[in-house]
Specification:
four-stranded antiparallel β-sheet
């Protein structure tokens, strides 16, 4: 049964806000939501959302079919800006009205993504004013901007910062030209403030990518991922000190790149061992057919649209008992709703109900009457939004 996402609310209008070097005027920080329990080696799926015309909440509509994993591992709020204050001659972080709405409505626009395991980053873009990541003339000026970025991450419970060095207009308003150490200073200062658990990513375009002295400054040590900015193209990043599993060589526009091209790029990502696949411009509506062509190659799962989702974790153990396979399935719930769960396998079927948030239930099945364990079971979790079918593999032990 499909859900129309009743737990999600829309965005309400609020005023635009600029975050100047003088200080942030922002609401208290929301606590970060827990990360989903899965940690897999599939290529990371990245999505950029143009929040001037679309809701970030749309990202939470997509999961990998038969799992409680998100279709997207990282989602970028596109975009904040690096602006320039002519009077103080300093760069500052500017959030336009829609970016501000998204951040201040974090409970409906950001937390649902994080609850499913998607990391949410703020993408920062030039704004034709001469300020950019590549023309800080001292470590001190880079540190002042890093302060603002880190404050935004902490205040809104975000998972990191994404840099996009386009449209900066270097030289405008009497600003300096790019130099090879500016972005390195900024990365170093930002990593110092964010710590190792937050993400810093780079959209590989502009002087920050082209001119930075990557080897001489060790700047790449502070980056988690970098990727191709040209949609529909194959363009492997060239950042010394980083590895293929940190690179996205493929990028597609969900509204203009053909599905055949997107599929071919996904296959090449897997074949050549790259760790990221980038998508741009997720709009409202059902894009699951297109996305399935990508995720089936990258993960082995199709993409489900607005499938029911519950905050549960499963643990399956298969052992031997008297020469027969014994299955032990533990269901942990952190969901707000009361749930029931049906465990169905080749060994048998059993249902448990009344699972409240913070509770766990264990289902035990043992092969009898010639039943044989086949290495896969389905846990159907039912709640107010419908039924979510989770397919869980397990290793079959040799019991005879």
């Amino acid at each position: 049964m499909q859900s129309s996402a009743p737990r999600r609310a829309g965005i309400a209008a609020v005023a635009a806000i600029g975050l100047a070097i003088a200080g942030l005027t922002v609401p208290a920080a929301a606590s970060a939501a827990p990360t989903a329990p899965h940690d897999v080696d599939d290529p990371k799926r990245v999505v950029y959302v143009e929040v001037n015309s679309n809701d970030m909440a749309n990202v939470a509509d997509y999961t990998l079919e038969g799992t409680d994993r998100p279709a997207f591992d990282m989602a970028m709020i596109f975009a904040a800006n690096i602006n320039y204050d002519v009077d103080s001659q300093q760069a500052y972080l500017h959030l336009n009205e829609r970016v501000t709405e998204t951040l201040e409505q974090a409970d409906t626009q950001i937390r649902p993504l994080q609850e499913r395991g998607t990391k949410v980053l703020l993408s920062v873009l030039g704004n034709h004013q001469g300020a950019g990541f590549a023309n800080f003339t001292s470590r001190e000026s880079a540190a002042a901007f890093a302060d603002q970025l880190a404050d935004a991450v902490e205040t809104y419970g975000l998972d990191g910062i994404d840099f996009d060095d386009e449209w900066s207009g270097y030289g405008n308003n009497g600003t300096a030209q790019p130099n090879p150490t500016s972005f390195a200073y900024l990365l170093d200062e930002l990593r110092d403030r964010l710590g190792p658990d937050k993400l810093i990513t780079l959209y590989n375009i502009g002087p920050s990518y082209d001119l930075t002295d990557w080897e001489g400054t060790g700047a790449s040590e502070n980056l988690d991922y970098s990727w191709n900015p040209y949609y529909g193209a194959w363009n492997p990043p060239q950042v010394p000190g980083m590895t293929k599993d940190q690179f996205g060589a493929a990028a597609v526009d969900l509204t203009s790149t053909s599905v055949d091209r997107a599929t071919a790029l996904a296959q090449r990502t897997v074949d050549e061992g790259y760790g990221v696949y980038v998508t741009y411009n997720l709009t409202a509506g059902d894009h699951s057919a297109y996305l399935s062509k990508i995720t089936e190659i990258l993960t082995g799962h199709a993409t489900a649209y607005r499938a029911p989702w519950y905050d549960v974790d499963l643990e399956v153990q298969a052992t031997c008992a008297g020469g027969d396979v014994k299955l032990k399935v533990r269901i942990d719930s952190a969901d707000d709703a009361e749930l029931s769960a049906t465990v169905a396998s080749s060994v048998g079927t059993r249902t448990v109900s009344g699972i409240a948030g913070g509770e766990s239930r264990t289902v035990v099945q043992q092969a009898k009457r010639g039943a044989a364990a086949d290495g896969e079971l389905t846990v159907s979790v039912t709640g107010p939004d419908g039924t979510l079918d989770l397919v869980e593999p397990y290793a079959v032990p040799a019991c005879r």
